[in-house]
Design a protein that fits this description.
The protein is of the alpha+beta class and 280 residues long. It has 11 helices and 7 strands. Strands 5-4-3-6-7 form a 5-stranded mixed sheet. A two-stranded antiparallel ribbon has the order 1-2. β4 and β5 form a beta hairpin. The longest helix is centred in the middle third of the chain and has 23 residues. GO terms for molecular function: isomerase activity.
Amino acid sequence: MTEPTPDREQLTDLLAQQWEAIGTLVADLDEKAWRASSPLPGWTLFDVVAHVVGTESWLLGETPPPHDPLRPKTDVRTLPHVRNEIAVLNEIWVDRLRPLSGKRLLALFDEVTDRRLAALAAMDTKAWETPTVSPVGQVPYGRFMRVRLFDCWMHELDLADGIGRSVTEGGPRAETAFAELTAGLGRAVVKGAKAPDGSRITLDLTGPVTRRIHLAVVDGRGAVLDEPDGEPSAVLGLDSGLFARLRGGRTTADAHRDEITVSGDTALGERLARNLAFTI
């Protein structure tokens, strides 16, 4: 069954809220704080925001600024955390924006996201539903924008963790982002956790995004079930914030052992906890 394309007005509004949340979070940073490390390998807090600026600029049809000849040139393909062509483009944008001050970057972020919101508001239904290349394959443009919301929501968490502040991790933006976090869990069960055929696993997310996610392995393929179809082989319990960070590769299960509960087949549950990551 084909997944419906997200509603344009609703998702555009969530993106507006998400970009506002990011801008508010970093608005009072001084230059030293901008250059503090984030949870992402090789990236500062400045780099996280520069990445968002770069992606949204690219979606407006723009190219990275030219390299400053007075700066050493970095071959981004040699960086250990760069593993594909999308990452190469991300790094080029980040590298080219690094000479800016944090204050100038924030002004550019506001300007670019305002233009993106105007572009989204001007789209008609045909354009919103037109298949386009995205990090999750060729999907309707509106589905791609759900990926953008997820990406920016995760980066809000990166910024908050890097600064050392708490942010609201529930609500409509988080609920929408979780559709991306849960979509590929079947692969994590089979490829990561090596769950045998016939396995049933329940993920019990305790909030602020509350979920009971039922997973099954049938004929060697992992799937997310709408409803459980039997007793689970293992039940994995954790809060949704930790789940998001594990799925995003921002931390490890071993660093949070006292925050994760496993019942039933503990070995299977622990393997899944250690192999939830699908992005970094």
